[in-house]
Amino acid sequence: MNGTAAVEPQVEILLITGPAGVGKSTLCWELGGLLAEAGVAHAAIESDELDRVFPKPDAAALSALAPGARDVSQLNLAALWTTYRALGHSRLIMSGVMIHVAFDKRWILAAIPDARITVVRLRAGDDSLRQRLDRREAGAGRDAQIERSLKQSKRLADEDIADVLVVETDGRAPQELAREILDRIGWARAA
């Protein structure tokens, strides 16, 4: 032993964003499958599941758990990542609508301070979003979800996208998108 402590690799987060129905979850499944085939260790988390709780905890309840915490998603991500990190993981695939990427990056970095985040924004035309959501949504909330997704798409299109990898999804298979993204960020070569 030479007295030099082992340095853990920096955490790399691939943050997949875009409006509801654009294909974030499907893409994450494809990314995970390709990484598993290549032998690349990783974890995957859908951010929507981090705050699916009722009633939502208020600031006082969150602060009692972790001083300064302002979002239950932050606390749950930190708890999950503690386990994944203890298992030796340094790569995380996350997905979520993430309308305000700068804000979302702050709570993610509060949960995983040593992370480097690569943001991928998926885009699709309005007709594609309507078709995808029409197949996915059912019941009374269908029309409201389609309208909400179209508004999300417009807001995301109007947001500054510096340091964001934008990927068009229209007419492209999830497998093709996953391979392109992994090639562009270099994760597939890690095996």
What features would you describe in this structure?
- The protein has 191 residues and is α/β, with parallel strands linked by helices.
- The chain has one domain: 3-Layer(aba) Sandwich (Rossmann fold).
- It contains 7 helices and 5 strands.
- It has helices spanning 24-38, 59-65, 72-86, 101-111, 126-136, 142-158, 174-185; strands at 11-17, 43-46, 91-95, 115-123, 164-168.
- It has a 5-stranded parallel sheet with strand order 2-3-1-4-5, with helices on both faces.
- The chain is globular.
Give a quick summary of the entry:
This is AAA family ATPase. With 191 residues, this protein is of the alpha/beta class.
Could you list some keywords that capture this structure?
globular; five-stranded parallel sheet; 191 residues; alpha/beta; 7 helices
List the SSEs and their pairings:
Elements (H helix, E strand, L loop, with lengths): L10 E7 L6 H15 L4 E4 L12 H7 L6 H15 L4 E5 L5 H11 L3 E9 L2 H11 L5 H17 L5 E5 L5 H12 L6
Parallel strand pairs: 1-3, 1-4, 2-3, 4-5
Helix pairs in contact: 1-7, 3-4, 5-6
Number of domain modules? 1
Read across the widest sheet, the strand sequence of neighbours is 2-3-1-4-5
SS elements, strand count:
5
Pairing-aware structural class of the strands and helices?
Answer: alpha/beta
Distance between the termini: 27 Å
State the major sheet. 5 strands, parallel
Give the proportion of residues in helices.
40-55%
Low-confidence stretches: none
- Helical stretch count? 7
What do the pLDDT scores average to?
88
CATH superfamily (homologous) name: P-loop containing nucleotide triphosphate hydrolases
Beta-strand percent range: 15-25%
CATH-level-2 architecture: 3-Layer(aba) Sandwich
User: What is the CATH class?
Assistant: Alpha Beta
Rg estimate, integer Å = 18 Å
**Which H/E pattern describes the elements?**
EHEHHEHEHHEH
Shape: globular
**Could you please say which CATH topology applies here?**
Rossmann fold
